[in-house]
Amino acid sequence: MTKEKINIRTGHQVDMMRKAGETASEILQKVAASIQPGVTTKEVDLYAAQLIAERGCKSAFLGYRNFPGNICISVNEEVVHGIGGPRKVKYGDIVKIDVGIVREGWVGDNALTVPVGTVTPEVQRLLLATEESLHVAIDHARHGEMLGTLCHSVEDYVVNCGYTVVREFVGHGVGRNLHEAPQIPNYGKPGGKPRLREGMILAIEPMVNEGTARVKVLSDKWTVVTMDRKPSAHFEHTVLVRKGEPEILTPRPRLTF
Ligand code: MG
After folding, report:
1. Per-residue pLDDT tens over the stretch 80-108
2. Span from the CA of 243 to the centroid of ligand 1 (angstroms)
3. What's the mean per-residue pLDDT of the chain?
């Protein structure tokens, strides 16, 4: 995997990341609760912008490689990196919301998939499996564990449920910057380096497809869609590696049906 140095955060730095994570989570949950049939993804994006500004924070995504949105909003077959626009959310859709914010110079990054009204049992199962795969991976975020084992655990879980993982987009270290070392694919070799150390902070984010793993980027140069246009789910937490129980820095309740 990457040879780049992985930051180790301690004391005050961890406190700052905890604050950034809490704010990112609070905003994500408020945005998720605002999603209802008829709302456009642009309206959702603007609501997120307002929540971010009210808290004295900045979007970690806006302007990143010229990304034009405040958050990422991706519907149904859209996997990640969707840009708010005129598309209206419909009853039965699933909407992936990814919120990354900068609070006092530190980044919190988290995502979830919102079911709009009642979704099919098949889609419920996809969402539950994807969120569970995130927690399976988080359980490996412990001092002394190998990153490859963590990465492998996502694909292993998801494939056993009959799904596929997206390979072109990955999780990442996070801290002062949105994307720091290491890269965190949703697949890997058990036992593969590097070894995780207490104080590493990881954004773990399974992207799971009901059908083919293959994806493509639309002509807007950002929105990633599944090649077969079947649904995709995405859940993400920012996680602190510790000795013993990992700490989720973006805590929120799990999805229930
Ligand atoms: Mg991320």
Report:
1. 999 999 999 999 999 999 999 999 999 99
2. 23
3. 97
User: What's the CA-to-centroid distance between 51 and ligand 1, angstroms?
Assistant: 19
**First vs last C-alpha separation in the chain:** 37
* Edge-to-edge strand list for the sheet holding 201-204: 180-184, 171-173, 201-204, 237-240, 247-248
Residue 6 belongs to some domain of the structure? no
Q: Which among 51, 10, 19, 57 is positioned nearest to 32, based on CA atoms?
A: 51
Q: State pLDDT tens for residues 107-142.
A: 999 999 999 999 999 999 999 999 999 999 999 999
Flag whether 84 is in a domain. Answer: yes
Q: Is 48 domain-assigned?
A: yes
Q: For residue 179, report the distance from its CA to the centre of ligand 1, in Å.
A: 8
* Range of the structural domain that residue 192 is part of: 11-248
Q: How many domains, the chain?
A: 1
Q: How far is the CA of 172 from the centre of ligand 1 (A)?
A: 6
CATH number at residue 144: 3.90.230.10
